[in-house]
Amino acid sequence: ARFDAGRTLVMRLSADRSSSAPRKDVPMIFKLRLAVGLAFVFAAACAYAQNESNAPYFALRKAYASADADAAARAYAERAVYVELFEGLPPQAYSGRNRLRELFAMFIDQVRDGDKKTNIDLNFRLLAREPRTGGSVDTGFYRLTATDAQGVESFRSYGRFAVSIERGEFVLDANSAATRAEFESAVGPVMF
Questions:
Q1: According to DSSP H, which parts of 66-189 are helical?
Q2: CA-CA to 60 of 20 to 30 Å: which in 32, 121, 145, 184?
Q3: Global confidence as pTM
């Protein structure tokens, strides 16, 4: 229920507020040519938005792998909002890249538990992407795993996310807990 509330929040806050211009009567052949041209432009824009919308996932995964809280924070917009919606706990919201940098540094230190050789792997299973002007609204699951230098797993967690992405950065990120079964049975490709 909290995850659905988070997704609704992301959808409302990232709603496209553009308005359409009034249409005028134009010849049918022009309408047809315009429609075909716009279809090509739309397809190209969607492809670009898909690539740009994937950028923060790649950046966040790479930042966790290198245990770099600064790089993790740079996957988020300067005024991004990060919301935790975990069962049994009050919702927690963190605003701004500097605050997120502190949060990521604490989390990375906690996962590594003093072992600088700990490898952190973050992966995502994207369930839905709604393209928006300059980005998208995505929902899915994530899996975070930590292993020591010998490959022995020391930490694993799963979660759900709903994010709004603009210009290649997370601007709103709401997440909650999930189970391994939910992650594994979800329909959608694992990103990495």
A1: 69-74, 97-112, 180-185
A2: 184
A3: 0.74
